[in-house]
Design brief:
Number of helices: 7
Shape: elongated
Order of helices and strands: HHHHHHH
Helix content: 40-55%
Structural class: mainly alpha
Number of strands: 0
Length: 224
């Protein structure tokens, strides 16, 4: 059986000279010779096993496009035991809430709401918590005034004067506290925004110490 091979680029210029590789083709004993009539029906060097550049099969058929799209469109399947999954989800949520609440109590920045973030707000909290103020007992005073309102119905003018005096004390104390906070923030944190810090400090001063959030990190009497 005669085998024809195309001339390579080196032998293109010499038509009368036969290449050595073509001369040795067809002789099975010669190294590099072409194996004709191989058992697998393929010539040596053309896709035989173990040749470089040949990608082996992936072992499974490629799914059709319609089948792949149908798999993508399938809804999410719920777990077999939905009650256990719900309990597990509630447990994770409860753990996350407890962790965030503990971090909020400690005053960690990542757990604070936007209104409490920043060094200026932290300074305002410390300044408010460093002293006992009349505004802190606002809730107690409000309860006493409500009791007097029912007990002293005939002396309504006295109760009104007490309410007015309490409001004046709270407003005056809030204005002085806000001015002090703004001045101290300008000295320690120049360039930081102090917008709303006066109202922020006044509202914190009106809260009971145990109910303040974040929790106070300084004791009454500490120097700020």
């Amino acid at each position: 059986m005669r085998v024809f091979r195309r001339r390579n680029a080196d032998a293109a210029g010499s038509p009368g000279q036969r290449p050595a590789a073509a001369a040795n083709a067809g002789s099975p004993g010669q190294p590099g010779g072409l194996q004709v009539g191989a058992p697998d029906g393929t010539a040596n060097g053309s896709g035989g096993p173990g040749r470089p550049g040949v990608t082996p099969g992936k072992g499974r058929p490629t799914p059709k496009r319609s089948e792949a799209e149908r798999r993508r469109r399938q809804p999410y399947s719920a777990p077999a035991d939905r009650k256990a999954a719900a309990r597990q989800g509630r447990g994770r949520d409860r753990t996350e809430r407890n962790r965030r609440y503990a971090a909020l109590r400690r005053g960690e920045e990542w757990a604070l709401p936007p209104k409490d973030r920043g060094p200026v707000r932290a300074l305002a909290r410390d300044l408010v918590d460093s002293r006992r103020r009349i505004s802190e007992f606002y809730m107690y005073g409000l309860g006493v005034l409500l009791a007097l309102l029912f007990l002293l119905r005939s002396q309504q003018a006295v109760v009104d004067l007490l309410v007015l005096g309490m409001v004046l004390v709270i407003v005056t104390e809030g204005m002085l506290l806000g001015r002090q906070v703004k001045k101290l923030a300008a000295e320690r944190f120049p360039g930081e925004s102090t917008r709303g810090v006066r109202f922020y400090a006044a509202l914190r001063a009106m809260q009971l110490r145990k109910l303040r959030m974040p929790a106070p990190r300084v004791k009454p009497g500490d120097t700020i």
